[in-house]
Write a structure and sequence with these properties.
This protein has ten helices and four strands, in the order ααααββααααββαα. The protein is mainly α. The strands form two sheets. Strands 1-2 form a two-stranded antiparallel ribbon.
């Protein structure tokens, strides 16, 4: 029943499904936690009941997203020890502590104040409740910090040595703040705020289309739309810088992303909109692209050189059709 797939391919498919499902919920809860902190702060400052009503509405969605993020995240932790047990054996001295730091500094903070945030309204003072909400929001951001540090280290590893086939940490500063971490962290944080703001705007838009025009819906729509404006513009800049960082530190991966086989020397690289990569024959079939746009995006030059996949050993190339 494996459909001719190897154990490695099956493990990749399973983990890809898990992480693709999981990321929806942290991306939602990170942004919503900060949105809830803003709503409660504005309510404490203005005593405008609109902010209080919005808080009580969105805290239910936040709680559901947070719970689903925890449950689906636990599955991934098990898969590190099953699907990728050999990787964990070799690199666990780095990835293990990073994930442990996330639990000790972030998850405990979130879990400790979440019950006050969810059930403490009217049972503790308004300032104490706001403090709990703020701690949950800070905890989600700290959690994102450590998870992105671990993920980035697996992409651009630094600060370690290999002894008897085992990775041994030598510089934790270099491990945590590896070359791709700042870009990945900023990219993910902005994405989380963009996702949650789009959720707020989409919900308000649905009510507007149904004929509701009260202050609650208008305020929700306005606050969300301003955040969409800021984060969408910011994400373009961060994404560009992240791409330049990937070109510098992971050129093979970037070439696979772009389906780029031949290094362009005397002309610009096109941006392929569609292609069928053929790894065996080292070429693409049915290419459709925009001339020079790939070089412009990746090098900020119309004829900038981008190293092609043929310049890398075949065993070092990722599965191009999937990555492309």
């Amino acid at each position: 029943m494996s459909l001719g797939l190897t154990a490695l391919e099956l493990a990749r498919i399973q983990f890809a499904f898990t992480v693709s499902f999981h990321i929806i919920f942290p991306a939602t809860s990170i942004g919503l936690a900060c949105f809830l902190s803003l709503l409660e702060w504005k309510w404490l400052r203005t005593q405008n009941p609109i902010y209080k009503d919005l808080f009580k509405y969105w805290i239910k969605i936040f709680a559901a997203a947070f719970a689903m993020g925890v449950v689906s995240g636990i599955v991934m932790a098990y898969q590190f020890g099953t699907n990728w047990s050999e990787f964990s054996r070799i690199a666990g001295s780095v990835t293990g502590p990073l994930l442990t730091y996330e639990v000790l500094s972030a998850f405990f903070l979130e879990a400790g104040f979440l019950s006050i945030m969810l059930f403490g309204w009217g049972r503790v003072s308004p300032k104490a409740h706001f403090f709990a909400t703020l701690m949950v929001a800070i905890g989600t951001c700290i959690s994102m910090f450590w998870i992105l540090s671990s993920n980035s280290w697996m992409q651009t590893p630094q600060g370690f040595s290999i002894e008897n086939g085992i990775i041994v940490p030598s510089d934790w500063w270099a491990i945590v703040f590896n070359p791709s971490f700042p870009y990945r962290f900023a990219h993910m944080a902005t994405a989380a705020f963009l996702v949650s703001s789009l959720l707020v705007v989409g919900t308000a838009s649905w009510h507007l289309l149904k004929g509701r025009r009260d202050a609650l819906i208008k305020k929700s729509f306005s606050m969300g739309l301003w955040m969409v404006l800021v984060t969408s513009c910011l994400q373009v800049v961060i994404g560009d810088q992240h791409g330049l960082n990937t070109l510098e530190h992971q050129p093979t991966k970037l070439a696979a992303i772009e389906g780029h086989w031949e290094t362009n020397h005397d002309h610009g690289m096109p941006l392929l909109l569609f292609a069928l990569p053929d790894m065996q024959n080292e070429r693409n079939a049915f290419e459709l692209g925009i001339p020079n746009l790939g070089s412009l995006i990746l090098t900020h030059s119309m004829d900038g050189k981008v190293t092609g996949l043929k310049d890398f050993a075949p065993e070092d190339r990722p599965p191009v059709p999937i990555v492309f």
